[in-house]
């Protein structure tokens, strides 16, 4: 995240604290529409009705990764079996 993006987030937060519920709801709806538009620009065939905001953001993040970033995530991934063993849940492996 750039320094400019961080400053915008701080500014938005500071302004939001001064707004009433109706105004905040309007801003939230606008942000969700902007997220939908961005997602559709990345994946025109996405079915938005089947996703909540969290899922949309996760998909945008995934679609925005470079191949190098995807490869790095694959290399750093910890197998589920290892996590279950580490947590003492080996019984779930059977």
Layout: helices, strands, pairs:
Blueprint: H1 3-16, H2 21-42, H3 53-64, H4 67-76, H5 80-86
Helix pairs in contact: 2-3
- The Rg value, from CA coordinates, equals 19 Å
Low-confidence stretches: none
Distance between the termini: 42 Å
**What is the ordering of alpha helices and beta strands?**
HHHHH
- Percent in helix: 55-70%
- Structural class of the helix and strand makeup? mainly alpha
Total helix count? 5
Number of strand segments = 0
Shape: elongated
Q: Describe the main β-sheet briefly.
A: none
What fraction of the residues are assigned to beta strands by DSSP?
under 5%
Q: Round the mean pLDDT to the nearest integer and report it.
A: 92
Note down, in words, how this protein is organized.
The chain is mainly α and 94 residues long. Helices cover 69% and strands 0% of the residues. The longest helix is centred in the middle third of the chain and has 22 residues, at 21-42. It is elongated.
Describe the structure concisely.
The chain has helices spanning 3-16, 21-42, 53-64, 67-76, 80-86.
Keywords:
elongated, about 90 residues, 5 helices, mainly alpha
